[in-house]
Amino acid sequence: MNRADPLVLGIETSCDETGVGIVRGSTLLANVIASSMEEHARYGGVVPEVAARAHLEALGPTLREAVDRAGVTLDEVDAIAVTNGPGLAGALMVGVGAAKALALSLDVPIYAVNHLVGHVGADILAEDEPFEYPTVALLVSGGHTSLLLVRDLTSDVELLGETIDDAAGEAFDKVARVLGLAYPGGPRIDAAAVDGDPRAIRFPRGLTKPKDLDRHRYDFSFSGLKTAVARWVEQREDAGEPVPVGDVAASFREAVADVLVGKAIAACVDLGVPRLLLGGGVVANARLRGLAEERADAAGIALRIPPLSLCTDNGAMIAALGAQRIMAGHAPSTLDFGADSTLPVTTIQS
Amino acid sequence: MLLAIDTSAGTGVAVVDESGRVRAERATDDTMRHAEAIGSLIARTLDESGVAARDVTGVVAGMGPGPFTGLRVGIAAAHAFAFGAGCPVLPVVSHDAIALERYLAGGDGPLLVVTDARRRERYWSAYDGLDANGVPIRVDGPGLAKPDALPAPAGERFDAHVVSAAALGTLAARILAGGLAFAPDEPLYLRTPDVTPSAGPKRVSA
Lengths: 350, 206
Ligand SMILES: [Zn+2]
Prior knowledge:
The complex is a heterodimer of chains A (350) and B (206).
Chain A: E1 7-12, E2 17-24, E3 27-35, H1 37-41, H2 48-70, E4 79-85, H3 89-106, E5 110-114, H4 115-121, E6 135-140, E7 145-152, E8 156-162, H5 168-178, H6 185-193, H7 210-216, H8 223-238, H9 245-271, E9 275-279, H10 286-299, E10 302-304, H11 308-311, H12 315-327
Parallel strand pairs in A: 1-4, 4-5, 6-9, 9-10
Antiparallel strand pairs in A: 1-2, 2-3, 6-7, 7-8
Chain B: E1 2-6, E2 11-16, E3 22-28, H1 34-49, E4 58-62, H2 68-85, E5 89-92, H3 94-104, E6 110-116, E7 122-130, E8 136-145, E9 156-159, H4 165-177
Parallel strand pairs in B: 1-4, 4-5, 6-9
Antiparallel strand pairs in B: 1-2, 2-3, 6-7, 7-8
């Protein structure tokens, strides 16, 4: 195997995107994503069985397209990388089964890697110079909301905190429903918030009170916020008053961004780490990016946001992490690993 | 050389040659750990058969019926292996392999194959012997039913707990030899996902 500049094909199926990516060392060659998002719209959220069925259907075409786009042949592939957790168990298993069989058919080693650490690895593939370590990483999507301290991408990642209830992306979906907006909620709320006043309503910031900070300094909670928004809207409706959708959307979005960015910056300051990396699909949210830029700037913290195509779930970030593990001299995974829906972030490779 | 994979019950892998002769076979009846088992089973079966991945000319996939989560692991593996080896996927109804095995063991005439579908339901398929190519003639099914609503067997009823990948591979070899059609390349879930569309937000205030 070429350990200096390995050609790695990565497979990602942890949630509702079937991703296949191909990298050569730290260079991105292909990043193909098939999403089942539209199939979940009528349910108002990701349905695990629907997602898993869609992965199986999308797998073959996505593999084919990635290899075509990368302009490589299969016999050049040095290794397969695959997400084996955390994520939806049934969805992960499709990728795990496929990746093992592909590795065997090509007679190459397999690297089972952590989805969350993969999000951090995406930064390697961005155009400019990669980030130095240590860095704090804030990963926000419909499936996870996690704050990590990354001392070394391939060997030393620590979980600082995570959501204790809903993921931030889930909160966007649920509040969108309350406001009569379509799924997925993130872009709809972003659009509705453009005309709204973010200071119109002071929605609660979960786990930011002094009594909560002792135990949950870097943890998040969005369940109370979601309920507060619903209650506020119901009171308006009960009183027969119109609901100012723009103001509610802007104020809700502000509360989410405030907590996410506030805790991430606090972690950077507390730990003396002047670097913050954002990842996950919620990075598409304009206010989250804007507020992160403002506060990072004010605190003298360097901020990195990879391109959105590398922030949402994708196979390229999994291939990138696999390639970094290979280049750092790590041995491949044995063939017996399974899908682990609650894989801890400290397990970078299974 | 055919590689056969079935995860509609446990996990089974076999290598079968074009004449239908079984070169190697490995299986586990564990109905939970398909994703864990599939890799080592494929690797060991290939090893034992002395067949290299590049010599595989078709990957036989057991399409079920079977519980979804496990069933998908084998079909995904079959597709990925075929993609890597540059050969076709050959989809076969898993119950057909059970029927073939039963007929090869000496049974004949009408046969009702029944397997567990969980949630107190059963999958079933009805057969009436082998055709001239030695392929089981499926006359009805596969279907899904409560145990007391299964079709009345015209002859023997056979409740199976495992699907033999060797029988699956042998069946595929017979289908190829006879120039017959393979099953559609679609998993036989026989159930729609267990969800209802959102009825709008629930009220949170009293
Ligand atoms: Zn993710």
